[in-house]
Write a structure and sequence with these properties.
The chain has 189 residues and is mainly beta. It has one helix and nine strands.
Amino acid sequence: MKKLLTLFLVLPLLTTCERDDLCPESSPTTPNMIVDFVDNSILENSKNVFNLVVLGIEDPSVFPLDTSVPEGSNLRSATGEDTNQVFLPLRTTNDQTYFILISDFEIDNNGTPDDLSDDFFTGNQDLVTIDYSRSDVYVSRACGYKTIFVNTNVTIDQGTDGQWIFQTIPQNDNLTIEDETITHYTFSH
């Protein structure tokens, strides 16, 4: 009787996990928006943004950021990157996502490296607002759904320090962000 009971307990464990219950890494997932940076005078030429910091924000009313850098600030760990491409994750719970892109980011210690209280950051801030509609697409039983972004539109607020992003150019009309292997927008600077 014990052997029969053990068989009934173990048999379901052996048969419940099937090959299609595992989501392969190659399966499509919710894509990031891919932005390439190009030269404003020759749009065909790729151009690096120097010391770029990208900050995702919930509330656009914080823009422009206060340039002071208190001792516990997240900006202390930010390091600018020289790049001609960024991957921006879009929110799947809202139809808008906001980013502050800071070019030429640098923390200035105000000539007092031992006193962190007077540090501030320099750089040019632009607020990027991305509007879209969301659509959930079934991938597979194991992977579930992914979100795609339809009718994506980007606007730029240059703030008070002048603009460094001059144009936002979608790569096609009624832009849908579904594929994470292609550029979705080009920003000229």
